[in-house]
Amino acid sequence: MSYTEVPGIRVPIRMWTDPSTVEDVAMQQLRNVSSLPWIKGLAVMPDVHYGKGATVGSVIAMHGAVCPAAVGVDIGCGMSAVRTSLTANDLPGDLSRLRSRIEQAIPVGRGMHDDPVDPRRLHGVPTADWDCFWSAFGELAEPVRPREERAAKQMGTLGSGNHFIEVCLDESGAVWLMLHSGSRNIGKELAEYHIGEARKLPHNQGLIDRDLAVFVSDTPQMAAYRRDLFWAQEYARRNRAIMMALFQDVLRKEFRKAKVTFDDVISCHHNYVSEEQCEGMDLLVTRKGAIRAGSGDYGIIPGSMGTGSYIVRGLGNAASFNSASHGAGRRMSRNAAKRRFTARDLEEQTRGVECRKDSGVVDEIPGAYKPIEKVIDQQRDLVEVVAKLKQVVCVKG
């Protein structure tokens, strides 16, 4: 489908979904965003739903300003995936051992490594500027500086919530590795600090929603936020790279006889800010629950822990600010999912997947998410499908 244009306050709201299906609170969030004085464009992806700060599944293009709450607290959250040389025939009938090995190699939930992972002992992790990256920690916002040791030990860890690690099969039977994570606690603390700082600024006092407080260009507050934001986005990228390398090592050890090899890793943020030129303007583009889908850009659009996921290639649709959805998108809140579904429902909806099936992850049940096939169909003018994947192992925090 092409987009539907809904009237906004300063800019129209371009929606790649039926506006009548979007909950009222999310539509109000979108209208609030469209009222910002710095807004130059607003695109809404088919996985749209209400979110803290700003709507999940929104692309906010502003000139000379950025809203830290719209970026969210998991700065740089995103996906990585890679195709392996293994096929479905190489996998054992019982995948519980493989899942256990993955959980042993990569801490999940609030876990962390006993010691920081040395990237030099891993395959495929760039290390040339590793020390330079960490040396910048001392320049971050003062309240987070005592967190350096923790941040170092959490590098290469999954976290919880909707983050996951999966072994998948594509339609030809090829085995893929896929994971979803972000900037862990250090990103959260940086985000919360800057959201608080933005709310104090005089130019934000008259906004319709205090969660939309912004930093503006050529101010020390903006400079400080950009420094911390881009560092946290880089942390998230490196976090996924470390996890993927650890994940690949698990496969090498478990399938020694097959001498498994890997294609190039596909990686993309979906909670981040990028400096881009759009419609003849230099803009700060915030994608909250959206991926970049410029012409030829590879991306990953996951479903839920019991449904399919998609590897896609961007079509470069300027109307969406070269963006696409980041996943299926929730159709009910976590609390609503816990009230409606049981562990037995989860077991039924994840039949055939080696994964947790207990009450602790009921809020991640497939029934709490929109149908991924419909979400993909609604953005055929944004991306083309490269591969459809179905998980056989899913690790959750």
UniProtKB/TrEMBL annotation:
InterPro entries in the cross-refs: RtcB, RtcB-like, RtcB-like_sf
Uppermost EC category: ligase
Leader sequence residues: none
A Pfam family of this chain: RtcB
Keyword Ligase listed: yes
EC number per UniProt: 6.5.1.8
Keywords (A to Z) from UniProt: GTP-binding, Ligase, Manganese, Metal-binding, Nucleotide-binding, RNA repair
CC cofactor: Mn(2+)
Catalytic function, reaction form: a 3'-end 3'-phospho-ribonucleotide-RNA + a 5'-end dephospho-ribonucleoside-RNA + GTP = a ribonucleotidyl-ribonucleotide-RNA + GMP + diphosphate
Protein name per UniProt: 3'-phosphate/5'-hydroxy nucleic acid ligase
Organism of origin: Streptomyces humicola
Lineage, broadest ranks: Bacteria, Bacillati, Actinomycetota, Actinomycetes, Kitasatosporales
